[in-house]
Amino acid sequence: MPASTSPTCSRASACAAAHSRLAGPRSGYAPSMSTIPAPSVSLSQAGRAAHDLGLAGLLGGNLFGRLALHPSVTAISDQSERGKVVNAAWRRYGVVNSISLLAVGTGWLGARANEAADRRLSPQERRLARAKDVLVGVVAATGLASAVQGMRFASLAPEGAVALRDGDHVAAGASDDARRVKRRLNALGAASLAAEAALVAVNAALNQRSFRRPPARRLLPRVGRV
Questions:
Q1: What are the boundaries of each domain within the chain?
Q2: pTM
Q3: pLDDT of amino acid 208
């Protein structure tokens, strides 16, 4: 004689089936693939503003120093005084550079964790984002190395008064150590300037790609990538 099915068992089976249907679409995802909750709009806007201001501070300071400050110190007749002025100026701007590096780095890392994560980007945007990853790293590395070499250069004379021919070159009577450190500083400054300019260009291209993507595709990044 077949066993009868109790109402309790029927209800349990129905609940299990309903639960299976609800969980079905998510069953292919491992717990480790859960996404980080998106930050609020105001927080994202503040992070992007800080990122852009930081990038402006880095590139603007580098351009001003190398194209305006360094050539202009030749108006100072005393070569040691030139070094004192140049080193004092860079030491003061070092605070701005440090804050700017922090803003650019944390702003981009925060964006990559959610809004600019690869899964949300089109193939073209993903390539630009990865190029930006590299450039942010290069900007940070050259910026930190420049800060270390700048402090070392300033320490070669009391109050940073290393004799300079101009802001980019030491005077004829400077020590070999001063020449070597200054050459490294110039090389790091050029590399930093190139990386910062490239970062501005990639950032602009990435933003433009995002603006041109239709709104529906921004919400559903895996559908109809551009």
A1: 42-212
A2: 0.74
A3: 87
